[in-house]
Design goal:
Helices cover 12% and strands 21% of the residues. The protein has 85 residues and is an alpha+beta fold. The protein has a domain of 45 residues. The two termini are 34 Å apart.
Length: 85
């Protein structure tokens, strides 16, 4: 984003990309002989000790936050979190 001061008026420009539509179908080819990585699940990394503040939230807000993060088919549906202090 860039801005320009032109006299008494300030102008702000922002780049807004066009939405990208995914293809209607996706073909995935698997090679059983190729080395692979095992899928462990979807997760996140919490760095900077910010996850320490979760304990400060009163119930029921703490449980609602955890539901938004980990409850299956609800919110982010995470399966793991790595916490760094």
């Amino acid at each position: 984003m860039a801005s320009c001061d032109s006299g008494n008026q300030s102008q702000v420009w922002a780049f807004v990309p066009e939405p990208v539509m995914p293809p209607a179908t996706v073909t995935v080819e698997l090679d059983a002989q190729a080395p692979f990585r095992e899928y462990d699940g979807v997760g996140l990394l919490s760095a900077g000790a910010s996850s320490r503040y979760l304990i400060d939230y009163p119930e029921p807000q703490r449980s609602e936050i955890l539901d938004y993060l980990f409850k299956p088919n609800f919110g982010a549906s995470l399966e793991m979190i790595k916490v760094s202090f």
